[in-house]
Design goal:
five-stranded parallel sheet; 47% helix; two-stranded antiparallel sheet; 7 strands; alpha/beta
Length: 217
């Protein structure tokens, strides 16, 4: 790729886009930064269209790359744009929240919302790579850190009882954002989620366990 479009919500872009664009430029890419307002309301066709406009202005074509930098909304929206611009561009996920680290970035589901419900318009579209830096979690509000832990506890319950017990033994270190502990937590989650997705990418049987009550709800 010659050019890279970095898609990020404005909050995350203020924190990490300068570092990301500097690294990409140093690696030889022409970088276009495309931002959108933070929040689930941005997961819309209207916002996707604004991002398409940005890709057109930056002349992003099939030889180029999209990088999503942020949480689950960014991965869903940016991944949907990657899946549909020019019938699909390669993209890389760089999640910056715990929920996105352990769940949303590893699964290949991309979508935007519709008036009839959440994630009603989307695709199964895998990133070429997921790059996780747990130091990004230092800027995450504690409420969002603990919310993301729900996905990790779920993985332990459905797939690895020893990992569930691991959470209990390290709860204080996790909540204090100990980077070594968080790195292990993320790695173990990714292994669990990736194994389930690899066995059933399109959720026809095994992958339903990841819903863990969502379906009944």
């Amino acid at each position: 790729a010659r050019r890279c479009a970095v898609i990020s919500d404005q909050t995350v872009a203020d924190l990490y886009a300068p570092k990301a664009t500097e690294a990409l430029t140093r690696a030889g890419y022409q970088v276009a930064l495309l931002t959108f307002p933070p929040g689930d309301a941005s997961k819309s066709l209207a916002q996707a269209e604004r991002l398409y406009d940005g890709l057109a202005t930056a002349a992003i074509d099939r030889a180029d790359l999209i990088l999503t930098l942020g949480g689950g909304v960014t991965g869903d929206l940016g991944g949907f744009v990657a899946a549909t611009w020019l019938r699909g561009l390669p993209f890389i996920q760089v999640p910056t929240t715990l929920e996105a680290d352990v769940d949303a970035s590893v699964g290949g589901k991309v979508a935007v919302n519709h008036a009839s419900g959440k994630n009603m318009i989307g695709a199964f579209y895998q990133p070429r790579r997921v790059v996780i830096d747990v130091s990004c979690l230092r800027t995450l509000h504690k409420r969002d850190l603990t919310a993301g832990l729900a996905e990790s506890v779920k993985h332990g319950l459905i797939r690895d009882a020893a990992f569930f017990a691991w959470h209990e033994a390290r709860a204080e270190a996790i909540l204090n954002a100990d980077e070594a502990v968080l790195a292990e937590l993320v790695e173990r989650n990714v292994r669990i989620k990736a194994a389930v997705v690899a066995a059933d990418e399109r959720e026809s049987h095994l992958r339903a366990i990841l819903n863990f009550g969502h379906t009944f709800g």
